[in-house]
Amino acid sequence: MEILKKIQQFFSYWYVRYLLVTELYMVDTWEKIVVHILFAVIFTMFWYFNYSIIVSGIAQLRSSTTHDIEQIL
Amino acid sequence: MAATVVNGCDGTSEMISPNKPQDCNGKQGKLLNGKVNKYENGFVKSTHLSNGDTKWSSGGVPKMDWSAYDTFPGSFEKCTLLTAALTHVGLYILMFLGFVNQLLFKPKVATEKNREGYATLYDPFETFFSRYLYRRVRHCFNRPICSTPGAELTLKERASDDRNWSFRFTGEERRCINLGSYNYLGFAEGAGGATHAGVRAAVRRYGLALCSARAELGSTPLHQELERTTAAFLGVEAALVVGMGFGTNTLGLPGLLGAGCLALSDANNHASLILGLRLARATVRVFRHNDVRHLEQLARAAVAEGKWRKIVIVVEGVYSMEGSIVPLAAMVALKKRLNLQLYLDEAHSVGALGARGRGVTQHAGVAPADVDVLMGTFTKSFGAAGGYIAGSAKLINWIRAHGHAHTYAHSMSPPVAQQILSAMRLLDTPAGQQRVRQLKENTHYFREQLREMGVVTLGHRDSPVVPLLVYTFSKMAATVERLTAHGIATVGVGFPATPLNKARIRFCLSASHTREQLEQCVRAVRGVVAELGLAYSRARPHKRSLPA
Ligand SMILES: Cc1ncc(COP(=O)(O)O)c(C=O)c1O
């Protein structure tokens, strides 16, 4: 129980900090939700972009260099 | 007066020289022949040669050596890039949401119809700002109180059912420690206060109003006594009192300056000074806040132009949004060297600064007569209303005739005059001196405690106005809400009184706060700082702690 309460406190503390930094603290609930969704969409797209393009690109680069090295050896 | 008379051209008589151009040309000529001539020569030469600077110092008035003066105006810690960026992103989100709101819901407010071909009535940005940014935090402003604003006050609680478009009273009241009023010396006491008996007698004798201007049937012995006492208090020849502090500036400045005068005005000057300068039709050039080097640059350029009837530096003693103190000794030195004049607004500093409460002149160790016009208000330290202008007798006579307040505005209410008189007299007794010391002690204690919390406070160590930077509107609102819940009434300030991204909480200390009250405040503030993450300062390492 103690642990659960701690965790809950931790989350509510950082949720308030997030609201304050993004100025969402003082807006209506529906506006909060709109911005949460916007943020969620943007960050998911970033994540997906990084995952699909950047990470796989780097993986390709790395595999090609290992291939080269293998050939040299 | 000594300093200005030495030059052979009395500074104050220059200040109050009649606004007729011929006369003034004559004076200006004399001034140039007498003192500034050499300077002009230096300037002319320097324009021909590229190495103007050396020529300048050989031929003209030498530049000021600022290292000899205390030009430290107070600390102004810059925020990190991250804080600045986040603040702007937050503002952007707010504006965006406001825009969406405006698109979706038509607010029930006045709209302009059938006005093709006319100028718009409302400024679009201002209406947008007040509807979608200001409204959301409106519960933190204009809060009604129902008691004297002493060390404690009673807030009348409000609630809103329509997201702050309108408020209703809940019928509840909340007793709070007052960290918002400008009650520096604690003279706002109400019944049982130190000035109570005198004020009561004045009401009995004169009533509340005189229904007349000073120049007509509005002068009582009380007013004359007050003017004499004020002049003696400040250490100058004469003083003039006005029923309203704001009006003292806006009505006094047009009496002193006119077209063809140049005002060098501090960037953070109060609205009353700005309005007064505009009404005076004086040309205004603004120098960066408390920046004597910038001021010198502007002043030298203005003198070199040689076309100004008078050049006046307009500054305040303590700046109420920054908590900074003017570097007065440096300004007086500059003014003397370049033969300028100085208008000093002591609204927040008189009574609150200096070993004996004489204001920023005493704090900076400057002779009061070296400042051409001393202006101040009685609304803060003296717990009354109105303002004064003090200086040489000649100056005061001139303002009596040419400033509009003495002739056209209602004279100061007699009980108010009595309150100021009693407070001013009390200030020179041991009990009064104790108040001045107490204020200083409280200020140092509170500022020191805030500094240890790692928050960004602005201003000078001795200034009883302590702004705490919180940057965003949300943090300002959250801080004010939480402090109110802890029983502390403070004021949050945001745009338009400050830059859009520099919202702050302003604490005003008072001699009437006890140490226990301040400790309670410090405890509450510490809790809020930890909860909301306000410890922005990097000046000193500190622990960021989660709330227990
Ligand atoms: C520098 C300055 N001048 C003038 C005034 C106006 O004084 P009053 O409030 O007495 O009208 C103020 C008030 O806050 C002020 O800060």
Q: What is the percentage of strand-forming residues of chain B? A: 5-15%
CATH topology term of the domain at 43-74 and 194-427 in chain B: Aspartate Aminotransferase, domain 2
| Strand portion of chain A | under 5%
Give the number of DSSP strands of chain B: 13
Main sheet attributes: strand count, strand direction, barrel closure of chain A: none
Alpha-beta content class of chain A: mainly alpha
Proportion of residues in helical segments of chain B: 40-55%
Spatial shape of chain A: elongated
Reading the helices and strands of chain A in chain order gives HH
Looking at the chains present, what oligomeric state does this protein adopt?
heterodimer
Q: Distance between the terminal alpha carbons of chain B, to the nearest Å?
A: 61 Å
Q: Residue-averaged pLDDT of chain A, rounded?
A: 88
Transmembrane segments (chain A): 33-54
Keywords (chain A): Membrane, Transmembrane, Transmembrane helix
Transmembrane segments (chain B): 81-105
GO biological process, one term (chain B): sphingosine biosynthetic process
Question: Would you mind describing this structure in some detail?
Answer:
The complex is a heterodimer of chains A (73) and B (548). Chain A has helices at residues 2-21, 29-72. Chain A has 73 residues and is an all-alpha fold. Chain A has one domain (2-72). Chain A starts with a helix and ends with a helix. Chain B is α/β, with parallel strands linked by helices and 548 residues long. Chain B has a domain at 43-74 and 194-427: Aspartate Aminotransferase, domain 2 (3-Layer(aba) Sandwich). Chain B has 19 helices and 13 strands. In chain B, the strands form three sheets. Chain B has a seven-stranded mixed β-sheet, sandwiched between helices. Chain B has a three-stranded mixed β-sheet with strand order 1-2-11. A three-stranded antiparallel β-sheet of chain B has the order 10-13-12. The longest helix of chain B is centred in the first third of the chain and has 28 residues, at 21-48. At the A-B interface, helix 1 and helix 2 of A face helix 5 and helix 18 of B. The structure holds pyridoxal-5'-phosphate. The site of pyridoxal-5'-phosphate has 14 residues of chain B, from helix 9. Chain B: This is serine C-palmitoyltransferase.
